[in-house]
Amino acid sequence: MLRAKCFVWVLVALAGCSSGVYQYVPAGAPGAQPKISDLPPVVLRFENPSYVALPDPQRVFNAVIDVVDDYFRIEREEPVRVFGTMATEGRIETFPETGATIFEPWRKDAADGYERVEGTLQSIRRRAIVKVVPAGSGFLVEINVFKELEDVLRPEYSTAGAATMRYESGLNRLVNPVGDQPAERGWIALGRDPALEQRMFEDLQWKVGRLIPPSRLPGASGCSTDCGPPGCGAPVNLSPGYTTPANQTPASPPTMPDPMLGG
Prior knowledge:
- The chain has 263 residues and is an alpha+beta fold.
- The chain has a domain at 42-153 and 184-213: TATA-Binding Protein (2-Layer Sandwich).
- It contains four helices and twelve strands.
- Strands 1, 2, 5, 6, 7, 8, 9 and 10 form an eight-stranded antiparallel β-sheet that branches.
- The termini are far apart.
């Protein structure tokens, strides 16, 4: 009897905490919930790509590697290589990583609480492609984070049998597959993840210093004497492809042994 009374009191307490009967409110009416399209956009603090005003390619590329490694597992990397006065483009590609959940607070690939909850309730994965492009006396760093949603034939715990004929798709037969299967198959592209890209740029700024928007570089439209690197508008030519601000001591560009000569 006592147990039944306690159960009734618990039900009464839960009923008192309820929010009442749901009432439909048309979109645009007072009290209506905002739509996803009405939510404020992500605030872009950094331009993508952003300019790193450091002439050392190894230092810049190592800093980018350090940032990317905190968020993703790197699949392949092509560092910036310098041959005399010419430098090649650096590139970093990562493995697809499943989205962080609310039970994994130590993971950093979810930029905010919404992304973390979505990664808990949905099968989300992300991958990144980062480019380091030589530009003048520094480098342009471009970070692209792609977000994808898994496309499954049926819910994971569906009660329908696997042999049940489905009406919205035909039969799929795979006979003698050759080579690796495409990793993108079975995933729906959701576009870029600008919030995570901004967080990675913020970490990069802590490692290399101030990131300069490309629109404020010397030679860009609207550039004045107080924008871009120190000495904007008055670069000192060192050699083809290398410049340095006028109030800094010129330094020779880094060189590497020519692999074709074996030395």
